Amino acid sequence: AARALAEKVPVAVVTMGSEGSYAVDGRTGETAEVPGIAVEELDPTGAGDVYVAGFVTGTLAGWPLADRLAFAGLTAALSVQEFGGSLSAPGWPEVAHWWRTAAESLRPRYGFLDALVPPGGEPASRRRAVPTIGFRHPV
Fold first, then answer.
1. How many angstroms separate the CA atoms of 11 and 27, rounded?
2. Domain boundaries, the chain
3. CATH code for the domain defined by 2-115
4. Active-site residues: which are they?
5. For the segment 49-103, what is each residue's pLDDT rounded down to a tens digit?
């Protein structure tokens, strides 16, 4: 299905949730498949949007197809560990923390993060949005 779709669009991506994703570059014929990252899932709301944002980030940066899939999957995996749709979208501090604490077995696949994550300590603070609560005021 992805190959047929790639004949009509520049890149066809099939996401498979926690199983990972597969893509076909319609211009070059390149294919890539990246397994998912095992995480404790709390809320899948917005994970697809976060995945697309991660993929577009890698595309605009000119990354190889497999790295784009890996980054998109990583950002989506980080997002499902939090509650709240758009509030769960990870920022660079969360990506950096994940990279610094990632299992050794993940290092080869996500090695491209070395060039993106500054070496050293933990991020100064969380950068995710904070939910607000509205209050009714008497008229």
1. 8
2. 2-115
3. 3.40.1190.20
4. 49
5. 999 999 999 999 999 999 999 999 999 999 999 887 778 899 988 999 999 999 9
